[in-house]
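Handout, section 4.2: multi-component inputs.
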Amino acid sequence: MTAFIALIIAAITYGTPLLFGTLGEILTEKSGNLNLGVEGIMFMGGAIGLGGVFYYEKAVTTPNGILAVIIGMVCAFIAGAIASLIFSFLTITLRANQNVTGLALSIFGTGIGQFIGEYMRIREGGYITISNTLKGFFINSPFPQALRDIPYIGNILFGNSIFFYLGILLAVVLFLYLGRSRSGLHLRSVGESPATADAAGINVTRYKYLATIIGGGISSIGGMVYITTIAGCVWNHEGLSGVGWLAVALVIFCLWRPLNAIWGSVLFGALMILYLRLALPFIPTQLYKILPYVVTVIVLIFSSMRNNKEKQPPASLGLSYFREDR
Amino acid sequence: METVCAIEMRNITKRFGSVTANDHIDFSLNHGEILALLGENGSGKTTLMNMLAGIYFPDEGEIFVNGKPASIRSPKDAYDNRIGMIHQHYKLVDVFTAAENIVLGLHEGGKLNIKAANEKVRAICEKYGFDIDPTQKIYDMSVSQKQTVEIIKVLYRGADILILDEPTAVLTPQETDKLFAILRNMKADGKAIVIITHKLHEVMDLSDRVTVLRKGEYIGTVPTSDTSPQALTDMMVGRAVTLNIDRPRYEHPEQRLELQGVTCFDAEGVKKLDNVSFTALGGEILGIAGIAGSGQKELLEAIAGLYPISSGSILYSPEGKAPSNLVGKTPMQIKKAGVAMAFVPEDRLGMGLVGSMGMTGNMMLRSWRKGKGIFVNRKDPNALALQVWKDLEVVTPSTEFPVRRLSGGNVQKVLVGREIASSPSVLMTAYAVRGLDINTSYTIYNLMTEQKMRGTAVLFVGEDLDVLLELCDRILVLCGGKVSGIVDARTASKEEIGLLMTHIGGKEEA
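Output:
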């Protein structure tokens, strides 16, 4: 039982960065933009988010933990938003191919993230990390000990880092926004049929830009969460690899629904760490590590077999919109 | 009584590059009238109306709405001027409900209240006699329901000037009647309505006045009661053309194609063709009518070997040879046997032509297997391309010019010309004149008749019942994948076919 609870908690820890990455990408894809650059965006978010917190702690004598968390998130968000702005400019304004641009952004972002991270590391004497008191605000639960002491469920429900709860809140907000608000309806129409949205007087370009930039920023926070919670607030140039791609896969797995992203990311988190927690000696860890991708493939097969109109990607996903094109 | 015009356009000019789509056009529309905007394809009807709808902005000229000068730069401006346009291609989001589509783009009082919107839509339906469930998803709807949603969308925005672009192109005669009844209701309600069309009988039936455009120029406006179809045609094409299609009888029709109980299922297991049996004769044009999606496409593809047949047989008897079964043969074998198909899909290019290749390249699609060696023969296809170019008067700068960039009519000429050039013994065409102007349509009709008189069995899937009745020898009507009836085109009436299209055997269901 303890092992199982430990597995769930570890799954939530590993799933939280994915949750941000996925929610951001859902928002982006709902506007009809397929940003494959999530991997690069998360790298940038990780390096710049950690850097922001590191230099904040260095600059002040008595750093405030909550402020540090906010600074980390804001720095990561801005990094991701800038990266997505490049993507948006290329694909929306210049109408470049989204797949190619996304892949380029992936490589570019990974490079920039590693460059900044390594540059900081070498300049600051070979090691970038933050003090243990400050780390606590990133890693520990925001809830009082009493709640966490409830048998079995206490730690699962209340023992996670603050980011998991922020992620759930974000998922709910995104769900309400997309499903219930007028602006969300407009955004979905842009992703489904930009020509229709345009004819209805909706500013397609603005919706696409905003959704992509904000979505990229949210994804980027996921990178920062990974570095601060899983990698222990230490810059490690290999730490993040693959998380962004998993987030892209998870968007499909969730069928573009924010609420599905909550349990989906925890499930994927579990699949990511199964090789540590449920290691069977005769199965190589590499096989464990492909599990999330195998699950995605299976889900893709099933969702396309059923051919249900409600479970399809936004109809104009990956296509650029040009009003005079007929 | 001096009334203010709902819309007045003065001296409107619109150019696209070197092409002048509208050349100093004057146009006026009154409240409480239905005005038909008549013209051939490419005469600038849609362009002119798009300037009212805010899709295009005029290069020259002025627009007055209710007597006041208006500058319409976007669809939103158009709505602010209470102008709404129902485009030919519906602009609807498939996965949204009717009501969600209707409120799309509106900013009424901040919060989205879909329940209130549903109620408002129901109220509009009640007022004008529409039959729509606001909570139904678009992908579950028929074409005519989708059109209704488009109309309600415009009314919901408070438009009192409605522009409908070829509204009846996709409707059955019964649905058309229903639409016309609704339009008359609206007229009685004081709304100003423009319908863009090239169907003369609709103009005569529905409109109060007619404005005619020809090749981007304004020809004139006449009250419908003072004119006749013949006079309007003269205005439209600029010279008198006979409305009758020449329909000679072929002396010795012989059996060419016999289908027996052909049944097909699509990938989802839905029955697309249900026990279809008929005979096509060499030397006749067999028209195939039906509401869009009744199995026309599947039928042609099944004969061409492109669609899997689950049961039934297709017997093909070429001139002077014993019949053979086509079921189970590959499309290549069927083509070699002399069965040609010219299918013009909605996007006109889809099947049959490669958009980025020129005419020569597209001619080669039929002949690349011929010849020896590893290089293809470009000479013969080029000669063929030149011939089609000349014979069918295709407007293109050269035979290497990408067909994608030709106008729709010319694309169709290339496609039909190529299929005819292989001198088939069965020629199948679907929507061969879709979107073509009258003159080009006649070129195509004549080609069909020419083929028929050569003893070819022609299968002609068409949309315009008037044309089917004038061109074909017999008409087969499909309804939901079944053969609803086969009628003699020389004696059948349009109402008869319309009924067959909607009810198996033409009987009203009890």
